[in-house]
Design a protein that fits this description.
511 residues; mainly alpha; globular; Sodium/glucose cotransporter
Length: 511
């Protein structure tokens, strides 16, 4: 058989496995809680790996190595540091509190649902605004996954960009449509382990083939990238990293506490007692994956110099280094990375459309079966819109991800932190934080991009100021929300990381 045939066989086996998971959970999703949160039954391994796999996406194997390939560690390392620190802080300070609060505040199953119950918003304004933000930025985020999938199939199979795009969308859509949250999370577990294995193996073998570290440095110098490993000077040595660039790259870490597709994993963990172990698993995975991803770009600049599109460096190294069948399996890791994020984004966006708009506002008495099929229809609709957004073959995975990441981080991050930690946060403050944060990202991206400052940084600051100022000076304080906060914090303080099994105690009994 030809090498192309072996690669096709490897991809086919992988895709059949993912489809099988979707079919398995299709027969086990009976209501919205099952479809969107898996009945809050995720174990520590699935929670940890699926959270991080859905976080990193095709960006881990395409965008970040591409940034390192072009500019060296001076840019990409600080992004990785910001992401690593942000991951740890999110797990350490948000995960357990959010699990407790969403359980006790109406047994909330989506982020808009949580905001409405946390601030006891009878007007549904918070739910509507947050659902709209999710739809807008997840369409951009999902489109980035589809672009990454199209680049993969275009490179591996020689398909046209449009044909490759249709194939990638079809695969992701099928198992997300069928299996919902549990299918997404269990496929993310397998995909996360495959991603980690691939991203570690490729740079290690690349260094070995180059003859070691010293010959690699010689090859980098010959390619005009002698400063590849300099932390404050770009690879070509032409200029150094400035304060604005450093703030922008480290600022990526601010986004974590506002990412709905990560936060829902915290909400879905089976027992609060598993949060600490899940955090340790997640941090080890993240540190290894980010380090190896940077090495792919740096080693690749010596191994395959002169690529016009740096985001293809992982694929090129795999094609050169490995025999066809193994290359097919490793290239499947890119598909794994893409699918592990795009499926989560589809599901969360669909939950905003079906659960937070259709169910909450228009069909409050809809049956579980009706809502389940409306949710599946929403998955198809959002996938179709994201497909049309991804049809430009010149789209940058890194650029799309950075925009969506900034939007969520600025619109939701300050509000999530205030909701979980600040007793006096008000409904008006939460609304102001969302609107100011999200609007600042859009305006900064379009009118202040020339400053070089990543839009997430001013967006997060604007969102935080909006929450704080309106909450403390707006006069919209609600004694009932503060009493609820006191009950949740009392429960959190006394139960902490211990497992508790009364799944309908406290406020959730009145959902």
């Amino acid at each position: 058989m030809t090498s192309h045939t072996w690669i096709i066989i490897a991809f086919t086996l992988y895709l059949m496995g993912m489809m099988g998971v979707g079919i398995w959970f299709f027969f086990r999703s009976h209501n919205l809680t099952d479809y969107y949160l898996g009945g809050r039954k995720l174990n520590k391994w699935v929670t940890a790996i699926s959270a991080q796999a859905s976080d990193m996406s095709g960006w881990l194997l395409l965008g970040l190595p591409g940034a390192a390939y072009v500019a060296g560690l001076a840019d990409s390392l600080w992004i990785a540091v910001g992401l690593g620190v942000g991951t740890w802080l999110n797990w350490r300070y948000v995960a357990l509190r959010l699990r407790h609060y969403t359980h006790m505040a109406g047994n909330a199953i989506t982020i808009p649902d949580f905001f409405e119950h946390r601030f006891q918003d009878r007007t549904h304004v918070l739910r509507m605004v947050s659902a709209l933000i999710i739809l807008v930025f997840f369409l951009i985020y999902t489109a980035s996954g589809f672009v990454a999938g199209a680049k993969l199939f275009n490179t591996v199979f020689g398909l046209s960009y449009q044909g490759a795009l249709l194939l990638g969308v079809g695969v992701i859509l099928t198992y997300t449509f069928l299996g919902g949250f549990m299918a997404v999370c269990w496929t993310d577990l397998f995909q996360g382990m495959l991603m980690l294995a691939a991203i570690v193996i490729v740079p290690a073998l690349g260094i070995h083939r180059l003859g070691g570290v010293a010959p690699m440095h010689d090859a980098l110098a010959a390619a005009g990238k002698a400063q590849m490993f300099n932390l404050l000077t770009y690879a070509d040595g032409a200029k150094s990293v400035g304060v604005i660039a450093l703030l922008s790259t480290l600022g990526w870490g601010l986004g974590y506490c506002g990412m709905p597709h990560i936060l829902v994993r915290f909400m879905a963990i089976r027992r609060p007692g598993e949060v600490v172990q899940a955090r340790r698993i997640a941090i080890v995975w993240v540190v290894m994956a980010l380090t190896a991803s940077l090495l792919v770009g740096c080693v690749g600049a010596a191994f395959v110099p002169g690529l016009a599109d740096g985001e293809r460096i992982f694929m090129e190294m795999v094609r050169v280094l490995f025999p066809p069948f193994l290359a097919g399996l490793l290239l499947s890791a890119i598909l794994a990375a893409i699918m592990s994020t795009a499926d989560s984004q589809l599901l969360v966006a669909a939950s905003a459309l079906s659960g937070d708009v259709y169910h909450a506002l228009f069909r409050k008495k809809a049956s579980d079966r009706e809502l389940l099929w409306v949710s599946r229809g929403a998955v198809m609709l959002i996938a179709a819109v994201a497909y049309f957004m991804a049809r430009d073959p010149d789209s940058s995975v890194f650029g799309l991800v950075s925009y969506a990441w900034a939007g969520f981080g600025a619109a939701f991050g300050p509000v999530i932190l205030a909701a979980l930690f600040v007793r006096r946060t008000t409904r008006a403050g939460a609304l102001a934080g969302m609107l100011l944060g999200g609007a600042t990202v859009i305006l900064w991206k379009n009118f202040m991009g020339h400053t070089g400052l990543y839009e997430l940084v001013p967006g997060f600051v604007a969102g935080a100021l909006g929450v704080a100022l309106v909450s403390f000076f707006g006069g919209d304080r609600n004694d009932a929300t503060m009493a609820q906060f006191d009950r949740v914090m009392h429960h959190y303080t006394h139960h902490g990381h211990r497992d508790w099994t009364h799944e309908h105690d406290g406020d959730s009994a009145h959902a």
